[in-house]
Amino acid sequence: MRADIKDLMENNLVCVLATVSGDSPHCSLMSYATDADCREIYMVSHKNTKKYQNLTNNPAVSLLIDSRETSLLQDKKRPLALTVTGIFQKDVPEGKKQAIRELLRERHPELYMLLDDRDAEIVVVKIKALQLLDGICNAYFESVP
To answer: Residue 26 and residue 20: Cα distance in Å, rounded?
Structure first.
């Protein structure tokens, strides 16, 4: 994985999660964390939300992470936008979910109530592909095994 992609994923706090219900897309602004290799993205959601129902019915997802949060003023003319294609993982062991809760708690202390809510569920997305748009015209695509 390219260093600029990994840096973008590790140094931002929010992404846009796109799910699908039937033929209708649905976008949600989400706080997230990644595993050490940036091969999985972790989020938390209530089980009774549209996004979570969409995930359980259609595990294919897309996420957008961009440089608006982390760019310096002079870099605003050269935005970075990363589209992540992935698959929602339905059967995550409870021990792994607990480790992810702790990781999210460290990275996003504001999520403490949601992370402690018994109606909330950990969302794990296994990354399948990455597309980085660097500025207006430069694009890079990478499959993730």
So the answer is: 6
Token pair 């935005």 is found at 79
Q: What residues are paired with 28 via a beta bridge?
A: 17
CB 31 within 8 A of CB 111: yes
**Spatial distance between the Cα atoms of 138 and 112, rounded to a whole number of angstroms:** 39
- What residue has token string 């403490």? 112
pLDDT at 67: 82
- Write down the pTM of the prediction: 0.90
Contact 41, 127 (CB under 8 A): yes
Helix residue ranges per DSSP H, the chain:
3-10, 50-57, 94-107, 112-116
Radius of gyration of the chain (CA): 15
